[in-house]
Amino acid sequence: MKNQGSALTERAILPEEKTFRHFINGEYVDSTDGKTFENRDPVDNSLIGLVCEAGQKEVDAAVRAARAALNGPWGKLTQADRVELLNRVADRINERFEEFLEAECRDTGKPRSVASHIDIPRGAANFKAFSETLANHPTETFKLDTPDSQGALNYGHRVPKGVVAVISPWNLPLLLMTFKVGPALACGNTVVVKPSEETPATATLLGEVMNECGVPTGVYNVVHGLGPDSAGEFLTAHHDVDAITFTGETQTGEIIMRAASVGLRNVSMECGGKNPAIVFADCDLDKAIEGTMRSSFVNCGQVCLGTERIYVEQPIFDDFVARLKAGVEGLKLGRPEDADANFGPLVSLEHREKVLSYYKLAVAEGATVVVGGGVPDMDETMNDGAWIEPTIWIGASDDARIVNEEIFGPCCHIRPFDTEEEAINLANDTDYGLCAAIWTENLSRATRVAEAMEVGLVWVNSWFLRDLRTAFGGAKQSGIGREGGVHSLNFYTELKNICIKY
Length: 502
Ligand code: NAD
Prior knowledge:
alpha/beta
């Protein structure tokens, strides 16, 4: 997390727009106790602004506003009216694309080329896609016609869950937050969002968009803050929150599940991963290298679906390692606005400390550094930023911590294998189960291996190719439940069965 606990006096030296306030009941508000923390730019560690930190009072107010909207104007809208409003929200995000882009890049340091293709367009798309899914979803019906029943019609009627708490991470802030807010609102719920303390900007800006589009006040609320003993804990423990949808680390997920157990509130958990790629000798090597460059290094490796373990069939192992190394050497580090840059800093100095501790550990565990392994020399304007070298290792043992623990940085370990069975066993030998990538031109093998993967998502000859109608989520310690398409409708609604005897 970024430096926190700054003195209130600093606020006076900042222009008004550099304070990130809570968005409650359609208005931007400060914390009543005036508590704030700093938001710093990972490119050079300069101060972007101060973020208000919510206490119990702000969380109570946000949940109250969400409940009132649910029982009031929002709850009374027809589905068609809701869909129209959410389409307007998507359009308005696209109209204000530059502002969202600027805000996201400032918070995360990621290249504009990445955020303009992924974060912002997909953030907008989340509002359209789920409205359409809902509008086109058939109603479940069963006609019971037995001698006993003498005729009855059952049909499923979807009602919103209620007030939904959305807890989101910093790596794809707008995209991951709207992946939950979009379907939650489409289904008629109201939300209280707790964005990551690292990335408060786009969630805050979205409040303006909601007002501009005429979304009733209280439907979308944002409380800023940290996790424990702060907004995150107060929100997930709140007795009037009906469901909690979370994206973040597995350990945080465990804490939130404990909070949700009080009152038996529903949870959806999208958590960490230690995702494998299996590269067979019969693959299209150009495509496998291009795909792995993205899966291991895009967004500075800070993607839950990222590949940190790569298993390569022995005959092409040396070639694969050499070509991936060449790819890494060709990455261009730079500021978000640098049009040539395709690699930004990590999200914060604190996260860099964590990733660097794994870089040190790799050497201590006997891994060979193929490329990278440290902190790059940046020009003096960026030297204080959270920059790190993209890194490849080989030669670590299968039980090394760098092969088993999620690092969430721009790094991967590559290991050779001899047989398909060996590759499957190695890939599955993990507590996580988010996703896997398989590179082969043999369709039978691709199908066989894909079905053997103990994960929620498999990509064959591709990576992160997303269709919002499909199921998204992880197996094992990578999550609980599925979102995406109809699966989101299942989470964000209660399906009530109505039986009519005729
Ligand atoms: P994190 O778990 O540290 O934080 C996520 C959110 O939870 C933040 O908003 C944080 O403030 C909040 N939080 C922390 N402690 C809390 C508590 N006790 N109670 C309530 N809220 C609390 O995760 P992060 O560092 O922001 O994100 C990186 C992690 O997210 C990685 O593990 C990554 O794999 C995972 N992730 C998973 C997916 C997925 O779809 N499976 C997507 C993106 C990121």
